[in-house]
Amino acid sequence: MSKILTAGIDIGGTKILVTVLADGKDVLGWKRHPTGIGKKDRTMDELAGSIETALSGALKKAGAQLKSVRAIGVGCAGQIELSTGDVLDSPHLPWNRIPLMRMIQDRIGKPVTILNDVQSAAWGEFALGAGRGALNMICIFVGTGIGSGIVIEGKLYRGSSGSAGEVGHTSYRANGIRCQCGRRGCAEAYCGGESLWLRARRAITRGRKTMIAEMIADTDHIPADVIAKAAKRGDPFAKKMWRDAELALGTIVHNYVNLLNPDVIVLGGGIVEGLPYLRDFACEYVARRSVRGAARTVKIEAPKLGAMSGAVGAANMAFVEIDCRF
Length: 326
What we know:
Elements: E1 5-11, E2 15-22, E3 26-34, H1 44-62, E4 69-76, E5 79-81, E6 86-88, E7 97-98, H2 100-108, E8 112-116, H3 117-128, E9 137-142, E10 146-152, E11 155-157, H4 188-191, H5 193-205, H6 211-214, H7 224-232, H8 236-260, E12 264-268, H9 270-274, H10 277-289, H11 292-297, E13 299-301, H12 309-320, H13 322-325
Parallel strand pairs: 1-4, 4-8, 9-12, 12-13
Antiparallel strand pairs: 1-2, 2-3, 5-6, 6-7, 9-10, 10-11
Helix pairs in contact: 1-2, 3-12, 7-8, 8-10
């Protein structure tokens, strides 16, 4: 019996990563390709062309042809409109509404499933990564912003409009500091990488005395680990910022444990990978603050699929949904 091939496409700000899976589990080949979004006057049609080129490259590495691919899954940052497969307000792409599902179906001629990028990565970790074997899993990524994916009873929970998991914009502190979304007190305003950088830069440009200024070449980008190091060295400003970041992350994790009682929480993203002790901090916070039964059973794990999680999750979801189409 021939194997069922599906492709997964992860669209980021600078690259497109495509993988080809056999029977939803075995990686046959993959390809990384630039999005080219930085190019002036880039069009949606040119983006579709880049996706097609990346897919062709992955198929070549897999030793397969497009005609053998049954379905395609796509993960893309932004709000996904479930009824149309359109991507709304993507932080990586310069258009307000992208008819991504129709673009890819028209160009490639295959059934397409569209997921939010974090939901796609979460599904990859659930199906083939750190959450494999779990029934209920949460995946939280802390990087430039904070996102999460939710798996309940073995199914990806997307919510009524597809926006489930926007945990970065849950309230951490009532009437707190302003978030990049325009609201106040969001968890992301306290532990998202971009918010940390902007808060530190604002303080430095206003003349605040802090070790952070001595540890960086300029204020165009201030990594979270620099703030953490300054805090460890006793800098008062950095200590307050970093303590807020730790507590905001702990609150996110412990709220998920109390609300959904998951088997596994996969905690990753650039900030956590750079400062892996944050997983231990989250474990300790959950042990102290969460409902006892839920705290005893949950495991907090590192992601296993790395940069491949989004593309693998998209390809696996396309495989799962084949039975619904044919």
